[in-house]
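In this supplementary section we document a worked example of the pipeline. Step one takes a protein sequence of length 287 as its only input; no multiple sequence alignment statistics are reported here. Step two produces a three-dimensional model, which step three serialises into structure tokens for compact storage. The input and output of this example are shown verbatim.
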Amino acid sequence: MKPLRKIIFPAAGMGTRFLPATKASPKEMLTIVDKPLIQYGVEEALAADMEQIIMITGRGKRAIEDHFDISAELEANLKKAGKKALYKKVSSVARMAEVIYVRQKEALGLGHAVLCARNWIFDEPFGVSLADELIVGDVPAMQQLRAVYNQTKCSVIGLIQVPEDQVSKYGIVAYQAEENGLLRLTDMVEKPNTEDAPSRLAIIGRYIFTPRLMELLRDVQPGKGGEIQLTDAISALAKEEPVYGVLLDGQRFDAGNPEGFLKANAILGLQHKKFGEALRQELIKHL
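The serialised model returned by step three reads:
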């Protein structure tokens, strides 16, 4: 099998939960402390030795392209002003990765967004990352998945354990624990009722797939709302070849909704080397 070097970032959503903030600015460009949400995901992917970023975008997402592009005028001004640290930050973002942009012209679900990248994947394994699932830890989430992929050469999915009363909000997996400690997934259920959930292990927006997944996505029939569900293709894949799950280690924030976004800014702000202590002192004044 060809080496794993490509990763897809579905980023075409309208970000309606953040309106009016996202009326003219992509949700992915909202900042967590001192950099955009999408940059955290790209840096995580690069830490896992991904080489090519495939960004699935839509109307109004031009700011993402500009962020990862070279801004010659800005860089020249920073250099001229002697702002070396800022110049290094700005220039490194523009040069950190090869980024390809693909339009998702219709909002037909996560499975469809991934399928939009098929002409860039060909017959290669690939990753998928949902950037609004922010996971911060000593070992980047995608790197944790890649370690299992390198061991098995099979598809790998990131998981977290959720409370019983929250299983209806997630795709929940059924699994078998193998002797080597790996979790082999046998089925996935999208947002089940509590009594129907096969476990409390939820799919959490980090994936590595063999090329077969892309082939199966082409055959997935649209479900509720006319959307093509990625979970349906994964379930079909698990019936053909091994699919493993990894319980991810790290702090997880659902930054795709305002509450999770605020929590991420507050907690990561307090942990920030430069801003943390000042923020802590200011918060104490208001408690």
